[in-house]
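Quick illustration, no need to memorize.
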Amino acid sequence: MANSILVTGATGNVGGEVLKALTAHGQRAIAAVLEANLGAVAGIPARRFDFRNSATWGPALDGVDKLFLMRPPEMADVETTLIPLLQFAQAAGVEHVVFLSLFGVEKNKRIPHYAVEQAILSTGIPHTFVRPGFFMQNLSTSYRDDIRFRNEIFVPAGRGKLGFIDVRDIAAVA
C-alpha cells in the first residue's frame, strides 16, 4: 500500500481527526489500533499496533511511507517503546514522521516528548513536530468540573495567557 500513512492514536481525539483530515484530502490512511478485531475505524482500514509489543510494528508499518506518531498519555517510558519504534520505522523505510509534541517542549528536557523529538532527530527521518498548546476539547472533559463548580481553569501557565486549540485544527496542520 504505497503512499500510506499509519496513524497512531487513531481512536482518540487528535488521531481520529487526523484520519478524517487525511481521507478528506484523498490520502490513504491506516488506523493503528490495539485490537485487531476492531476492524475499520470510521471506514478506514485498521491494523493491530501496540507500542509495547514490537511484534506488531512490522505488520502495522508494512507498506507505510509516513507515520503520525503520538505518545499515549499514560506512556512515560519512551525509552522502551517509542524510541525503539522510531528506529524500527527508520529501518522499515518510513519516509516522514509527524509527531504530536507539546508547546514549549524544547525548554523542558524532562518530559517524554523531548526525548522522542531527540530520537526522531537522531534517526534522520524527515519530520514535522506539531507543538500545540491546550486542547479546546478538554474544556468539556478534563476542565469541566473546575469550570462548572469553581468557575476556574487550572493550568500550569503561571500568570501567562494561553490559547486553546481545536483538535480539528491540529489535525489539519498534521
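Helices lie at 13-24, 57-61, 82-91, 112-123, 144-150, 167-173.
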